[in-house]
Amino acid sequence: MKLRTLAMMLILVLLAVFLIINWTTLSTVTTVNLVFDEIQAPLGIIVVVSFAVVIAILMLYTIWQQASVVVEIRQAHKDARIARQAADDADKSRVVELGKDVRARFDQLEALIVAKNEEIEKLVRERADAQDRQFAILRDQVKEEQAAAQNAVSQRLLDIDKKVSNVLPASEGEVKDEKKKKELFGELFG
């Protein structure tokens, strides 16, 4: 129990004890002035009954006020549950919308990346093809220059060989070989 309730019960018990102890004094008949009339009645009982009526009215008012507060609290809880449910539904729909928006943006980003990659691949292929063509031209030029240089070197070597062979006397081995060839060809054709 609350301290306030205990205090009220203690006060009521003390008042009841006071009324019981002083009942004979309270129940003695006296003249009571009611402003518009005078009557003979026990003044103590009239005061006690008046206070009891006032307390009963105050208790009914307090009960009515607490009941209205309870009804308002229930209505507030109901409204809060409805609002919470609506907020949860709104949050869920917002999350779904955000998810769709994020997916759409990722799809756009992916499409952009794919397009850029294709563009870069095309540019790389074009540059690679251009370089391959340049390398082929350079390779052909190098081969031609190599062939020309080889022919020039071969021709030069032949010229040097002829000059050297005309100036130098033939070795004995070459002379013998030369004689053998002449004899062999002479026998064949001769």
Describe the structure.
This protein has 190 residues and is mostly helical. It has a domain of 102 residues. The chain is built from four helices and two strands. A two-stranded antiparallel sheet has the order 1-2. A hairpin with a 4-residue loop joins strand 1 and strand 2. The longest helix is centred in the middle third of the chain and has 125 residues. It is rod-shaped and about 190 Å long. The relative contact order is 0.02.
Largest sheet: 2 strands, antiparallel
How would you name the oligomeric state of the polypeptide chains in this document?
Answer: single chain
- Label the structural class: mainly alpha
Q: Please count the beta strands (DSSP E, at least 2 residues each).
A: 2
Shape: rod-shaped
Give the mean pLDDT: 85
Low-pLDDT runs of 5+ residues are none
Question: What string, H for helix and E for strand, traces the elements in order?
Answer: HHEEHH
Alpha-carbon Rg, integer: 66 Å
Helix/strand layout:
Elements: H1 3-21, H2 23-26, E1 29-33, E2 38-42, H3 43-167, H4 172-189
Antiparallel strand pairs: 1-2
What's the short version?
The protein is mainly alpha-helical and 190 residues long.
